[in-house]
Amino acid sequence: MTEIIRTKERTYIEFDEGFLNNIIHIGKLNLTGAQHALPPHQHRDALEICYVYRGNPIFQTAEREYHLKGGDVFISFPNEIHSSGNYPLDKMILYWIGIQTSNLKGNFLHYSDSSEAEAFLHALHNLKNPKFRGSKELKRFIDEILELYFSEHEFRNILIRNRISDFLVSIINLEKKSSGDSLSSEIRDCVNYIRENVCLTINLKQLAEKAGLSLSRFKQKFKDETGVPPGEFIIRQKVEKAALELKESEKEITEIAYDLEFSSSQYFATVFRRYKNCSPSTYRRKN
Questions:
Q1: Cross-strand bridge partners of residue 50
Q2: In this structure, are residues 241 and 260 in contact, taking their beta carbons and an 8 Å threshold?
């Protein structure tokens, strides 16, 4: 029986076994603040492909920790245990789709041409990189799949299969051409400047000038490359610095707040809770 969840923050469909043969689930998460960590889990005989549209989630496997940003794709491979470790799910927009890749009953995605279906599956089996840069069309494909599923379009299932095919072809092509550092030199310089001067008040106009861009162009380019707007990136870095101070120093919480240029300890506590899902005092006690 199909399971459906539709809330303000989460849309999730877990499909019946027979739906398009191989599509296990699809979802969208739109978090406006931190929530509990994602517990360890796995997907039997299934590939799960996640696309981060916005935010900086952290996922863990048995082998390593992956720090993601908007525009990144993360793949958990069949039967691979993955989670967010001790990190709470942060403010983000995340899309994902689960695809069964073995022990199939019939052709992949119900393609009538078995050779074409096998070629598609072979390409998915050959995916090796768990993290690489995606593209905004991945968001569009999943948004259209969700819209179609809840519609009464007479060709609904055909159109959904086409969008899923488009999504998977894009993933295969993007993974093939994936490379290392995706930050341009000017944005990387600004990111380094923010991290080195996190205790100061950082002016976006000055950052734009440092990058040699207009303010509007800088804001867009920064968000495209890091996954979050520059103002939010600065706040996130201040919260991470505060978390480090809470763990490693004996400074009063008010002192930490003012050292990081927060206007008050109350505002600092509100921002900290938004990204860490607990108050500064609770975080210090637990760590």
A1: 74, 96
A2: yes
What is the three-class DSSP state of 285?
Answer: helix
Instruction: Give the C-alpha separation, 94 to 70, whole Å.
Output: 9
Return the pLDDT at 178: 80
The DSSP bridge pattern shows strands 46-54 and 10-14 to be unpaired
| pLDDT surpassing 60 at residue 180 | no
CATH of the domain at 112: 2.60.120.10
Which residues are bridge partners to 71 per DSSP?
A: none
- Same domain for 228 and 166: no
Q: What are phi and psi of 60, to 5 degrees?
A: -125, 145
**Which structural domain range is residue 279 located in?**
185-286
Give the distance between the most distant pair of CA atoms in the chain: 67
Structure tokens at 98: 């689960």
pTM of the full predicted structure? 0.79
User: What is residue 77's DSSP assignment?
Assistant: P
To which residue do tokens 């400074």 refer?
251
Over residues 19-41, the mean pLDDT reads 89
DSSP 122-171: HHHHT---SEEE--THHHHHHHHHHHHHTS--TTHHHHHHHHHHHHHHHH
| Region at 28 (left for phi over 0; alpha for psi -120 to 50; beta for the rest) | beta
